[in-house]
């Protein structure tokens, strides 16, 4: 299972156009404090369903020191890497290209176990919402 527990460059959301598309106000969003999740899912256009793409943000407003922001981002990345298999399986089964952003909105640092617990709750809620959505927005 070590091959599935990776977080490669292809899974990172880096393109400014894709980020703008994600935050255009037409996607789904919800909070599982201290995480805010913004997501869009579109039908996959290729036979091979792409892996979900993820953006992680920790605002400078809440964590003034880069070392603190980077630590929280690293904890979120690690928790996602361990728990993404359910989202990947759901996206493949439903032939969806999923793009999501996880924003840390809390003001206090959390230990790794708490981040993993909150991210697990957020991912399960995301899968539940995507499963109940009647249709998906057309691709970019």
CATH topology, which one?
Answer: Ribosomal Protein S5, domain 2
Number of strands: 4
Unreliable stretches (pLDDT < 50, length at least 5) are: none
N-to-C SSE string, H for helix and E for strand:
HEEEHHEH
Rg from alpha-carbon coordinates: 15 Å
Beta-strand content estimate:
15-25%
Number of domains: 1
Biggest beta sheet summary:
4 strands, mixed
Q: What is the count of DSSP helices, taking H or I runs of 4+ residues?
A: 4
Q: Architecture, according to CATH?
A: 2-Layer Sandwich
The general outline is globular
Strand order of the largest sheet: 1-2-4-3
Structural class call reads: alpha+beta
Secondary-structure blueprint of this entry?
Layout lengths: L15 H7 L5 E5 L2 E9 L9 E5 L8 H18 L1 H10 L1 E9 L7 H21 L8
Parallel strand pairs: 3-4
Antiparallel strand pairs: 1-2, 2-4
Task: Characterise this structure.
With 140 residues, this protein is of the alpha+beta class. It contains four helices and four strands. The protein has one domain (9-132): 2-Layer Sandwich (Ribosomal Protein S5, domain 2). It has helices at 16-22, 66-83, 85-94, 112-132, and strands spanning 28-32, 35-43, 53-57, 96-104. It has a four-stranded mixed β-sheet with strand order 1-2-4-3. The model has no long low-confidence stretch (mean pLDDT 91).
Kindly list the characteristics that best describe this protein.
single chain, 140 residues, alpha+beta, Ribosomal Protein S5, domain 2, 4 helices, 40% helix, globular
